[in-house]
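Hi R.,

Here's the chain you asked about this morning:
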Amino acid sequence: MTEVDNDLISKKELLEETGISYGQLYRWKRKNLIPEEWFIRKSTYTGQETFFPREKILTRVNKIKDLKDELSLDEIALMFSPQLTEVVLTKAEIQEHQIVSDMSLDLHQSVNGKTDVFSLESLFYLFILDKFLQSGEMSLDEGKHLFHFLKSNYSRFQDKNAELFFIRSMGAAAFFLASETRDICFEEHVKVVSRILLVDELEKLKSKIQKTRKEDQYD
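And the predicted structure, written out as tokens:
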């Protein structure tokens, strides 16, 4: 078996390993919970078979199984979508449910002025920013730079499985976005501080918001 084959799992293996049915798998596909491009047709000695990227599909199926008793399939599909949907949260909601830290909210206010209402787009950029600030990898001034960078550029990459790179070169910080990255090479003096897959972070944020809304319904 080649290295590429090791990265794939057959449909039969997937159903056996996860305990889901053929019908569930294709219903989730129709509902856009599993991307069309993850269904990979390959020739085998028994004919044409369907394979999936192993790590991605196992993570996704297990996530759907965890969520399907709490959320509708449509709500889960929205959570997995790379689109910045029309969601609005108040500053009080963000603070109450600790979606981002007060430090990041204060930074947003210093850049954009005082506001008590946040769109999903602004909150997503803050969520990314907060991840770096909480790790201690980024200064507040660099955080302002990152917020402006995402605000100016992310919309062109939101459907492209983009990665955000945070690098330092000769002590200076820089950011760039790349889609469908595989191998990437930097000069020796460039340090990659961090790289994150943005669609994964958006999914985490949407999941947090969905759970927040569910909790508020029962308060």
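The mean pLDDT is 85.

Let me know if you need anything else.
M.
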